[in-house]
Write a structure and sequence with these properties.
Largest sheet: 11 strands, antiparallel
Strand content: 35-45%
Number of helices: 3
Radius of gyration: 28 Å
CATH topology of the largest domain: outer membrane lipoprotein receptor (LolB), chain A
Structural class: mainly beta
Helix content: under 10%
Distance between the termini: 44 Å
């Protein structure tokens, strides 16, 4: 999909409004420094900007969909839709989509396979990564290594060390294995570790490591040694080939001989999050190596003065920022999130694919008030009042513009209404706001399942989102006279658990633009079912919309009410001059 901008316009005709970008990123585990008997010789902390590609000086890609010797079902790409940096983690995302590569191979899944071949390889050391794996039948995440002589001797003579593999049907088990001639595939020298007390690896981050020295490979999970392999572990007559440099690989496969294909319970997209990858060497050599202890870490950086998004707030902070969540029953985990996003995404996609041209009657009441004591003082109502009625028009867009709507107002004569000072602060673009949940645009935002809440006696799932400014294709724009700006949004959606329709939606700007004066802006939409007389088509459309905000010392509140929705056809009259 091309890089397109869907501009939801918030046009201000009285006060200046420009909107800012907000980039966020942090590493959850600081980078080790010196100070122990082990030396950090290579690492990636994935501390780049949100939405950026992995560091090309450290990682390359395997690209293709040839099954990779295991009858895998994915096509590995080098796109940022499948591998990107976010909040201090590498994200490898497996997606369910029809994709044809440059080699002409078509697959129904995509993912990524990153490797350090020709960029970094090493003989012996401690190879460690902190990873949160994906979940679901058919998923096959791995952190592993291959000998850097694979181009000369091929696999399996080059050797393979699997530091961590998991198959989705075994959520509590990971495997650490060795492969070489005489012990490959299902006959490899394999070990397994099971989490206690029914825990699942996909629920949290875990540290996976292999300590490799001459004639020994030891496997660890969260610092616990669970297996040690030596030449005596090999089948009789086999050769120990682990005596030359190896490079690192991170990937998420979909399907294959071992895990089997995804089934109806598998929810996409699925993500493997990698906090860091680190490689150490013992300072005194292997003969005198002390037991591994991670070097001291440098103190974390002081937090930057950037407002938290709804996804990053504690429950108490969230309840204060979004008062509508006062009756929220918080989620215990994020297990429900992939299924919710998949079902809501399908509903939103169908909405835009089948959207007809509509018009309705709009009643707008607008108040602009002055806060005499500055931005922290209460806003004094009654400064300026506006009241108007319009025909609100939403036009479907075809082709590449699907997922966007053209929204505008006309007067009683059908003439286009241009914003001006007589209309106060003019806001529009509400019908298309659910597009943040469109499957094609979900990678542009982060999501968090907040829990369940009853809204007007209706049980709902509650999901928060925040756009990722570095990659967001859907943006909102603001205009005033000759000035304009772009804003990135966060929000909360209340979703029907039966139909997975969005019943209510709130959006807020992610960050104030203090240089210009936009301090707050909140849009709240209540949807209702609309059945059109023409053809009986039913859609969920905005019924009531409230937009509030603060611009410097001014506050504003717009109330929009919609009624009498109708379908219509756009007619184009062609005129030809006689020759």
């Amino acid at each position: 999909m091309g890089h397109m901008h869907n501009r939801l316009e918030l046009t201000l005709a009285v006060l200046l409004l420009v909107i800012s970008n907000c980039g966020r990123g942090m590493s959850s585990t600081p980078l080790p420094q010196g100070g122990s008997q082990w030396t950090l010789v290579w690492s990636d902390e994935f501390s780049g900007p949100n939405g950026s590609a992995p560091d090309s000086t450290k990682w390359g890609y395997d690209v293709g969909g040839n099954g990779w010797g295991n009858n895998e079902l994915e096509y590995y790409t080098n796109r940022t839709q499948n591998a990107y940096v976010e909040d201090g983690n590498l994200v490898i995302q497996a997606r369910k989509e029809t994709y044809t590569g440059s080699d002409g191979v078509t697959r129904n899944y995509t993912s990524a396979r990153l490797l350090t071949a020709k960029l970094f390889s090493q003989s012996y050391g401690r190879f460690e990564a902190r990873i949160k794996i994906p979940r679901g039948q058919g998923m096959w995440p791995a952190f592993w290594m291959l000998g850097n002589n694979i181009g000369q001797v091929a696999w399996p003579k080059c050797g393979e060390i699997d530091i961590m593999e998991n198959i989705g049907k075994e959520p509590a088990i990971i495997h650490g294995s060795l492969h070489a001639p005489g012990y490959t595939g299902g006959t490899g020298v394999s070990n397994s570790y099971t989490l206690p007390n029914g825990a699942r690896f996909a629920d949290d981050f875990h540290v996976f490591a292999a300590e490799w020295e001459p004639s020994v490979v030891r496997f660890y999970v969260d610092g616990t040694l669970y297996a040690t392999d030596t030449p005596s572990s090999l089948p009789t007559g086999s050769t120990w080939v682990f005596d030359h440099p190896f490079f690192i690989i991170l990937n998420v496969a979909v399907g294959g001989d071992w895990p089997g294909p995804p089934d109806s319970t598998t929810v996409f997209p699925q993500q493997m999050l990698v906090d860091y990858v680190r490689v150490y060497q013992p300072e005194a050599g292997w003969t005198n190596a002390a037991p591994f202890q991670a070097p001291e870490v440098r103190p974390p950086e002081e937090p930057r003065d950037v407002p938290k998004t709804f996804l990053d707030m504690t429950p108490a902070e969230l309840a204060k920022a979004v008062p509508e969540l006062k009756h929220l029953e918080p989620a215990e985990n994020q297990d429900m999130l992939p299924q919710i996003l998949q079902r809501v995404g399908a509903d939103v996609e169908a909405f835009f694919d089948d959207f007809p041209n509509t018009t309705c009657t709009e009643h707008v009441t607008s108040v602009v008030a002055f806060a005499a004591g500055g931005m922290d003082a209460p806003v004094e109502p009654g400064s300026m009042h506006y009241d108007a009625r319009y025909n609100y028009v939403a036009l479907a867009q075809a082709g590449l513009a699907k997922g966007r709507l053209q929204e505008f107002r006309t007067d009683a004569k059908g003439e286009l209404v241009q914003p001006d000072a007589r209309h106060g602060i003019v806001t529009l673009g509400f019908v298309a706001l659910s597009v943040h949940f469109h499957p094609d645009l979900q990678p542009d935002s982060r999501f968090r399942y907040l829990g369940r809440e009853a809204m007007e006696k209706q049980d709902t799932y509650v999901v928060a989102f925040a756009q990722r400014p570095a990659v967001a294709r859907q943006v909102s724009s603001v205009q005033f006279l000759s000035g304009s700006g772009i804003v990135f949004m966060q929000g909360v959606a209340w979703i029907d658990p039966a139909s997975f329709r969005i019943l209510r939606l709130r959006t807020d700007i992610e960050q104030p633009e203090v240089n210009v004066g936009l301090l707050k802006e909140t849009t709240q939409i209540v949807y209702s079912e609309v059945t059109f007389k023409q053809g009986g088509k039913t859609l969920w459309l905005p019924h009531e919309v409230t937009v509030t905000g603060q611009l410097g010392k001014y506050g504003f509140s717009n109330q929009h009410r919609y009624s009498d929705y109708r379908l219509f056809n756009v007619e184009v009259e062609e005129k030809h001059d006689n020759p």
